[in-house]
Amino acid sequence: MISVNSLRKILKNDFLKLFILVLLVSLVLIRPMKFLKKNLFVFNALYGKQELIWHPLDLYAERFKFLKKYIPDYTVVGYIAEKNKNKKDAYNQYLYMRYFLLPIIVEKQDKDTKFVIGNFQRHPDRRGLQNLREKRGLKPILFSSNGVVLFKREK
Amino acid sequence: MILKIFGSFLISSIIGYLWISLFNPDFLNKNLKSLKIFFSIGAGMGISSLFAFIWLNMAGDLYYYPVFECITAIILAFLVFIKRTPSQKQFIHGKKQTQSGLSNSISYIFLVLFGISIFTGLLLFIFISFNMPYGETDAFAIWNGKARFFFLSENFHWLDLFKKNITIEHIDYPLLLPVFVAKNWTYAGQESILSPMLTSFTFILITTGSLFSSLNISKNRLQSIVGGIILASTPFFIVKGTHQIADIPLSFYVLATIILLYLESSDKEKNNFLPLIGITSALAAWCKNEGILFLLCVIFYRFIIFVKKREFHLVKKDFFSYLSGAAPILIVIAYFKIFLAPETDIFANQRGVSTLFSKIFDPSRYLLTARKFFNFAVEDIIYKYVSLLLVAFPFINGIKIEKNYKTGLKICFSILVTVLAGYFAVYIISPNNLTWHINTSLGRLLLHLLPAAVFVYFCSLKPINFDNLLNKK
User: Fold this and answer.
1) Of the spans B148-162, B383-397, B402-416, B443-457, which averages the highest pLDDT?
2) Nearest CA of chain B to the CA of A143: how many Å?
3) Do residue A147 and residue A71 come from a single domain?
4) Which of A35, A82, B8, B186 has the fewest CB atoms within 10 Å, measured from its CB?
C-alpha cells in the first residue's frame, strides 16, 4: 500500500502533478460526452436522417383549439377523463391541455364549475354520456371528432 | 421578434448595472473584471421581473410595461449620473495575485479542455432544447404556465390565479421566472419558446461565468478553469438548465451571494459589498421558496453568529447597509406572500401535530433521506470522475486557508451546510410520500448549492502553481 507520505513525495514532482491533473480533468469530460451521444438523435432529426417527433403540447394545441371559441377567458372549468393506468401519462395530458387553454383555468377535477371539459380517447357512446348527465348533471353541449367533449352543468 | 427578445434582455441587463451602480457603487468601481457583467445581467433579470410584477399590480396587465421599463432605465441612468463618485479604492484581495498558475504552453492545455467542456455543454443545451422545446413538466405546469397567464391576462385578471381558490400546483412559488418570461413575451408581442430558452441559457452562462471569474480573482487562472470545467461538465446542471425551471436561476443567486460574502471578508480595502449581497440574496428568495431559507441563513450567519469581534454599532450599520439593497425586494416578496400566495403545501398539508412528531421521531425517514442524499450527490452531481478530481486536488496542491479568508469561508460554508440541513429537515416532515418527494426534487435541490460549493471548495485550497515548470527544465 502507498502511504500518504510516499504519495506526497511522488506528488512533489511538478510534471507528475500536471500529468495527473490533466488526466483527471480529461476524465471529467467523459460524462458530458456520453450525454451528448445520447442526444445525437436530435442532430439526425434536424438533418432529416430521422423523423422529428412532435412535442405533445403542439398536438394538444390542435386537439383543444376549438374550445377556446366557446369558453370565455378566465373561466374556471372542470376536467374529466377516462381512467388511465399510467397516472403520469394521464396527468401530463391534463397539463398539456391546461397550458394550452390558458387564460381559461382548467381545474384538475370536476368541481362545481359551470363548464367541464371531457378528454376521451374516442368519442364517448350515448350510454356513457347519459350516465354523466344523470349522475353528475353534465349536459354535453359540444363534441369534437377526436374525443373532446364540452359539458355544461345543469344543476 | 428575436431582436425584440434580445432587446428585452439588454434593457434588463442595463437596469441591473444601473441598479447596482445606484445601491452599491463600491462594487462597480472595482477591478472585478467580468464579474461585474455577470452580476449585472443576473441582478437585472431579477429586478426587471420585480418591476414588471409591481407594474402588473398597478396597471393590471403588461401591455405598456416596455415603455415603463425604458423610462425607468433612463431615470436610473440620470440618478447614477448625479450620484457618481470617482473611483477611490480598488478591490485588493488578501493576497496579491501576480501569478496565473500557468505558463503559456500549459495554459493552452487547460484552455482547450475548458473549451471542449463549454462546447459540449452548449451542444447538449441545443439538442435537449430542440427535443424539449417547452421544457420539462414543471416548466409548463408551473413556471411557463404562470408566465402565459400573466402575458395573456388583461385588466387585473392575472389575480384570478390567486383569488379564485383553484387547485393548481404551487401557486405559492415566487414569481421571478414567470414574470420575467412574460415580460420578454410582451416585448416580442407574442409568445415564443425562445424567451424561456434564452432565459435558461443566460442563467447557465452567467453561473458558469461567475464561478470562473470569481475563482480567477480569488485564486488563480488554473483553479478557475478547473472549477469552470467541473460545472460545465456536470450534465445534470446543463440538463436541468434546459428544463426551463427556476433551479439554475436560484443556484446563480446563491453563488453570487456566496462569492460576494467571500470577497467582502477578504478585501483589505474594506469595500462595502453588503447592498449587493442584499440584492442577490433577496432575489434568491424572489426566485424560489428555497431561496427564503437561504436568505435567512445569510442574515443569521453574516450578522448574528460571526459578530464576536465586531462592535454592536458596526453590526447595526452593516445590517442597514445590507437592507438598503435587500429591502425593496423583500417588501415585494412580503406583499406577495402575505396578500397573494397561499400557504406552502409542505406546511399547509400537515395532518396535525401528532403526525408531525411521529415523522420527526421516525428513524427510518432519516435513514432513507440520508441514503438518497448520498445517492443523488454521487450519481447526479459529483459523479465518479468529478469526485476523483475533487479528492485528488488537495493532494496535488494542499489545503491552506489563510487568516484573511477564514471568516468569509466560515460564513459561506456554514450557510451552505445549514441550507442543506434545512432541505434535509423539510424531507423529514414532508406530508407527501417521502420516496416520491425525494426522487422528484432532491437532485434539483442539490443543484442550488453546487456552484457555490465548488467555489467554496476551491477557495479553501492553496493556489496551484505551474508557472515555473518549463523554466526549471
Assistant:
1) B443-457
2) 26
3) yes
4) A82
Residue A51 domain flag: no
Q: What pLDDT shows up at residue B198?
A: 94
Question: Do A36 and A100 sit in the same domain of this protein?
Answer: no
Q: Closest Cα of chain B to A126: distance in Å?
A: 31
**Percent of chain B predicted with pLDDT > 90:** 45
**Given this model, what pLDDT does residue B96 score?**
47
SS3 B267: strand
What's the rounded mean pLDDT across residues B274-288? 94
Let me know: does B417 contact B348? Beta carbons within 8 Å.
no
Query: C-alpha distances in angstroms, A149 versus A82, A100, A121, B18?
Result: 12, 16, 11, 53
From chain B, the residues in CB contact with A31 under 8 A are 233, 235, 383, 385
Q: Do A23 and A85 sit in the same domain of this protein?
A: no
Chain A residues lying within 8 Å of B386, measured CB to CB: 28
Expressed as residue numbers, the domain containing A16 is 4-46
Mean of pLDDT over chain B? 85
Total domains in the fold of chain B: 1
**pLDDT class for B306, splitting at 50, 70, 90?**
low
The parent domain of residue B205 ranges over: 2-82+99-472
Number of domains in chain A: 2
Give A111: exposed, middle or buried? Use CB within 10 Å, 0-12, 13-18, 19+. Answer: middle
Number of Cβ within 10 Å of residue B430's Cβ equals: 20
Specify if B409 maps to a domain: yes
Higher pLDDT, A154 or B77: B77
